């Protein structure tokens, strides 16, 4: 929108300059018919040329006002050089032009050059540094680079506690397509997926309401993101263009991002080096969803998607159980908790002491994040 306002302002200035100069008695008189044509054709022609050159090239969002001033400065310098060229052409070819005519041509030429340089800087500000060292108009942030949140990292919810305790002081960026994916999951016909999607939206609202957490929903259209297939590829392209770090709990996505040379913050890897919350001997309440792969095993899930493997829980599907934790396993692919059945939740049975997990009872690990 701002770019189109600038384009409209450009045409207003060009038309005003042409009208003022063409309507002067020196140029519009009978003796100045050639000057009248020179001003009108050269001024209008240059304006149309640079305008079409600007519109037909890919456009990007304005992110730095300094780029406008830099483009204006370069445009003025180029206009001074071209003004000398106009005098040289007029003298070399002995073109009879009034001083007013030359002045009008130089003015229109200056406006066109300023417009063109500003437009170029606004679109290619990320590449200016390669042309002119130490000059850069890319978006800068104080402190650490921003964290681009994946859907799994939002649903996981631990990012809120990490930011609340100042482990991450960088800005959190949620691309628009990630928010759309969260809404799609929340509208899913599957009950478990729908609960995870709504949990992600609730956590996102919680982060936005926290005064100490800087969360931004970014609508920036990054070059090449439309060609990317799937949310995972879009995240990698967006994070790389944003010069940020990708926060996720998806093991496969983290590996793909590392191959693409994108910095990844895997929440599960952070949890593996921190104190484990689920300690052996502690009591936990979980609902059995499905049978496990081993005999007598039942599988349940916590709100954040953590898998809970319960011994003697295979015949208790659909029931809320009270279990005692025997062990836990934290990997980059997710977290699994192993426990033993102690009683039904409504019976309010106390959790017993920690018991050793039977050998050979480890199920096949699953990805904590189930992308749609």
List keywords for this structure.
372 residues, alpha/beta, Rossmann fold, OB fold (Dihydrolipoamide Acetyltransferase, E2P), 3 domains, five-stranded parallel sheet, five-stranded mixed barrel, 13 helices, disordered C terminus
Explain what the structure shows:
This protein is α/β, with parallel strands linked by helices and 372 residues long. The protein folds into three domains: 2-131, no CATH class; 147-273, 3-Layer(aba) Sandwich (Rossmann fold); 275-372, OB fold (Dihydrolipoamide Acetyltransferase, E2P) (Beta Barrel). Helices cover 47% and strands 16% of the residues. The protein contains 13 helices and ten strands. It has a five-stranded parallel sheet with strand order 3-2-1-4-5. A five-stranded mixed beta barrel has the order 6-7-8-10-9. The longest helix has 27 residues, at 66-92. The model is unreliable at 59-64, 136-142 and 348-372 (pLDDT under 50).
- Give the uncertain stretches in residue-range form: 59-64, 136-142, 348-372
Task: Tally the beta strands.
Answer: 10
Which of globular, elongated, flat, extended, rod-shaped describes the shape?
Answer: rod-shaped
Q: Secondary-structure element sequence?
A: HHHHHHEHHEHHEHEHEHEEEEE
Specify the biggest β-sheet: 5 strands, parallel
Give helix % range.
Answer: 40-55%
Class based on secondary structure composition and strand pairing? alpha/beta
Distance between the termini: 34 Å
Q: Tell me the number of structural domains.
A: 3
Which value, in Å, is the CA radius of gyration? Answer: 32 Å
Q: What value does the average pLDDT take?
A: 77
| Adjacency order of strands in the biggest sheet | 3-2-1-4-5
């Amino acid at each position: 929108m701002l770019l189109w306002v600038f384009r409209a302002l450009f045409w207003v200035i060009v038309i005003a300059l042409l009208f003022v100069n063409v309507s002067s008695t020196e140029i519009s008189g009978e003796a100045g018919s050639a000057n009248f044509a020179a001003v009108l054709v050269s001024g209008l022609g240059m304006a149309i040329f640079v305008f079409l050159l600007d519109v037909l090239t890919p456009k990007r969002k304005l992110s730095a006002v300094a780029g406008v001033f830099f483009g204006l400065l370069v445009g003025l310098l180029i206009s001074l050089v071209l003004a000398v060229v106009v005098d040289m052409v007029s003298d070399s070819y002995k073109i009879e032009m009034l001083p007013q005519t030359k002045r009008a041509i130089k003015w229109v030429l200056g406006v066109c050059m300023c417009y063109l340089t500003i437009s170029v800087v606004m679109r290619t500000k990320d590449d200016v540094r390669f042309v002119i060292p130490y000059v850069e108009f890319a978006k800068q942030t104080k402190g650490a680079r921003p964290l681009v949140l994946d859907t799994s990292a939002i649903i996981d919810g631990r990012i809120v506690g990490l930011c609340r305790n100042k482990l991450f002081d960088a800005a959190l960026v949620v691309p628009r397509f990630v928010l759309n994916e969260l809404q799609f999951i929340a509208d899913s016909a599957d009950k478990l997926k729908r609960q995870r999607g709504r949990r992600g939206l609730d956590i996102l609202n919680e982060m936005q309401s926290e005064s100490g957490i800087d969360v931004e929903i970014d609508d920036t259209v990054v070059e090449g993101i439309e060609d990317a297939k799937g949310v995972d590829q879009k995240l990698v392209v967006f994070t790389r263009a944003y010069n940020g770090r990708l926060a996720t709990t998806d093991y496969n996505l983290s590996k793909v991002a590392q191959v693409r040379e994108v910095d990844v913050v895997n929440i599960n890897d952070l949890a593996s080096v921190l104190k484990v919350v689920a300690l052996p001997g502690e009591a936990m309440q979980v609902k059995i969803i499905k049978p496990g792969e081993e005999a007598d095993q039942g599988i349940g899930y916590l709100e954040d998607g953590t898998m809970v493997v319960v011994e003697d829980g295979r015949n208790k599907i659909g029931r809320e159980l009270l279990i005692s934790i025997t062990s836990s396993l934290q990997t980059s692919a997710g977290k699994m908790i192993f426990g033993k059945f102690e009683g039904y939740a409504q019976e309010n049975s106390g959790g017993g002491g920690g018991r050793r997990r039977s050998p050979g009872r480890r199920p096949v690990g699953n990805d904590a994040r189930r992308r749609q």
